Structure formats: C-alpha cells, structure tokens
Amino acid sequence: MGIEAINPFELPLLNTVILLSSGATVTYAHHSLIQGNRSGALLGLLATVFLAVIFTCFQGIEYSVSSFTISDGIFGSSFYFGTGFHGLHVMIGSKENVGLLLCESSLWSKTRGTLRSKGKSGIGGDDGCRSVNKRSLATVSSNDRKSEKF
C-alpha cells in the first residue's frame, strides 16, 4: 500500500518531450520574427501554443491517474506544488503567445507586410499591443539592434 510513484518513462517522459519541443518551436518563432519571416513566426507560435495545450491536457490526465493526493505527506505536496506551478507557468505563457499572435497579425496588416522598421520591432504605440508582453517585445527590439551592428 502507501504511495505508488508514477512511472517516469510513460506520461512524464512524453510531457518532457513535448516541453523540449515547445522550446524549439518558440525559438524558431523568435528567430523568424527577427529575420522578418512572418509565416515562420506565426507557425512557430501556433505550434508552441498547440504543444502547451497538449501538455496541459496530459498534466491533467497525470493528476487524475496518480495514486496520491496533495495531502499524502511531503511527496504528494511536493509533486503537486512543483507540477502545479509549472502548469500555471505554461498556461500563462500560452496566453502571452496567443496575445503576441494577435498583435503580430494586426501589425502585419497595419505596416503593410513589414515586421520591422528602422531597426525596431514595429510593435507598440497606440495599437493596443504594448501591454501584451513587454519583456518579449523588448527582447526582440534589442536583438534587432544587435543584428544591425554586424
């Protein structure tokens, strides 16, 4: 009896592969955005959001089939604390990626097909997108300035 740990080579391994894949897709989207490749940026962000939704669903399945609860001592509380906060992080990141997708799509039409203008990301101003993800946009803008030096 007692607590039966989840086999790490089943659903947890699949979730790990999904998370690593989502890191690759968001990196692809970032590099596509820097290069001005709109379709690559959209594809990368869409794939990232898709993988995040799959991860969240699998995490829910993992919670439902586990033989322990959050009240089953330090193992249960540590498991749910760690995986719960990580799941929350994934969901917040998905929301931010969806926001960036919507902003990028509206900006594409406003700037007539250009993502960047004079070394800036082109994101901001009165288009309502400034508050979506300031850190991501600042990263893109600073990377644009770095690439102009070379």
What does this structure look like?
The chain has 150 residues and is an all-alpha fold. It has a single domain (11-145), classed as Cytochrome c oxidase, subunit III, four-helix bundle (Four Helix Bundle (Hemerythrin (Met), subunit A)). It is 71% helix and 0% strand. It is built from four helices and no strands. It has helices at residues 11-35, 38-65, 73-110, 134-149. Helix 1 (11-35) packs antiparallel against helix 2 (38-65) and helix 2 (38-65) runs antiparallel to helix 3. 19% of the residues are buried.
Estimate what percentage of residues fall within beta strands.
under 5%
Q: What's the CATH architecture name?
A: Up-down Bundle
Number of helical runs?
Answer: 4
SSE sequence, one letter per element: HHHH
The biggest beta sheet reads: none
Catalogue the unreliable spans: 116-128, 130-143
- The total count of strands amounts to 0
Structural class: mainly alpha
Mean pLDDT figure? 75
Which of globular, elongated, flat, extended, rod-shaped describes the shape? Answer: elongated
Q: Percent helix among the residues?
A: over 70%
**Cα-to-Cα separation, first versus last residue:** 63 Å
